[in-house]
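Protein entry
_____________
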Amino acid sequence: MSVTSKIKQKGQLTVPKEIMEQFNLSVGDVLEFSVGEGEIKLRPVKVMAIPKDEVWGWQPEVMSAMKETDQLYAEGKLKLYTEEQLADLFADLDAD
């Protein structure tokens, strides 16, 4: 499929309706421009909005620890606690 769109003031470009529908794009979606061999290519990019106070959870070392925990759980090497047991566990840890 080949469609055209005219660049407007401030470099704005309208994505044709056919392309929007074909790629299920919506207002606010992000497109990545790549340049090479005399061409400009666009592709949709999926982004995640992460609240600033939760960014720590996406750090590589945290993600690695979570992956390791999932593996240990799959191997049956973790003990599961009820909510009440957790309260007792934390109380015991604080007492030490």
